[in-house]
Amino acid sequence: MTDHPFEIRLLGKEDRSDFCCGAEPLDRYFKTQVGQDLRRRVSACYVAVEKTTGRVAGYYTLSAADVPVSDLPVDMTRRLPRYPAVPAARIGRLAIDRRFQGRRLGGALVLNAAMRALRSEIAVFALVVDAKDDEAAAFYRHHGFNAFASSPLQLIAPIETFRMLLD
Ligand SMILES: CC(C)(COP(=O)(O)OP(=O)(O)OC[C@H]1O[C@@H](n2cnc3c(N)ncnc32)[C@H](O)[C@@H]1OP(=O)(O)O)[C@@H](O)C(=O)NCCC(=O)NCCS
């Protein structure tokens, strides 16, 4: 078995200056704002680093979230107690550098986020994502997410759906 070429870890002192995913707001956030969000503990950021070069190939942010039950797709609400909201982990941003796109790294980062949520000592019912546009939403639907009832650019997947993939 070959060793995986990327390590996915908490953002540290990696060089972020030439990250380019093709979506300027996601590049700008990663270069200029992410450090502040980490320090303020409003989100965590994990990076996929190419082992041979140390280059950042992709990143995602992860934070705690609360999802109103009224926003859940109907089939997700069937066996839920009558609470107004359920706890979730939110992938706020996800981006792969252009040089590394098309290698299934985006899906690997989604799975990595799910793994962290499953391992958390705080209960997480679902993984939610904010898609920046319809194309990004299609990427998440391809990975098993369903749109919120109130917003097509917010999507959700029960955390249990990832357990089997990760076991
Ligand atoms: C969207 C993005 C994260 C995809 O990451 P990636 O590692 O390049 O993804 P890949 O091209 O290797 O595709 C992985 C799988 O997703 C599918 N996929 C990729 N983009 C898709 C899209 N827009 N719609 C539907 N499926 C898509 C691929 O067909 C592939 O499927 P397979 O594994 O069944 O063969 C990446 O292109 C990116 O960072 N784009 C710019 C920023 C962005 O759009 N971020 C989205 C979150 S806001």
Walk me through this protein's architecture.
The protein has 167 residues and is α+β, with helices and mostly antiparallel strands. The protein has one domain: Gcn5-related N-acetyltransferase (GNAT) (Aminopeptidase, 3-Layer(aba) Sandwich), CATH 3.40.630.30. The chain is 31% helix and 29% strand. Strands 1-2-3-4-5-7-6 form a seven-stranded mixed sheet, with helices on both faces. A hairpin with a 6-residue loop joins strand 6 and strand 7 (154-158). Helix 3 (105-119) packs across helix 5. The longest helix has 16 residues, at 24-39. The protein is globular and about 50 Å long. The two termini are 18 Å apart. The mean pLDDT is 95. The protein binds coenzyme A. The site of coenzyme A has 21 residues, from strand 4, helix 3 and helix 4.
The CATH fourth-level homologous superfamily: Gcn5-related N-acetyltransferase (GNAT)
CATH architecture title:
3-Layer(aba) Sandwich
**Poorly predicted segments:** none
Number of domains: 1
SS-based class: alpha+beta
The largest sheet, given as strand count, sense and whether it forms a barrel, is: 7 strands, mixed
Strand content: 25-35%
* Quaternary state of the chains: single chain
SSE succession: EHEEHEHEHEEH
Which percent range fits the helix content? 25-40%
Compute the number of helices.
5
Report the principal-axis shape. Answer: globular
CATH topology: Aminopeptidase
What is the end-to-end distance? 18 Å
- The average pLDDT is 95
Q: So what's the CATH class?
A: Alpha Beta
Radius of gyration: 16 Å
For the biggest β-sheet, the strand order reads 1-2-3-4-5-7-6
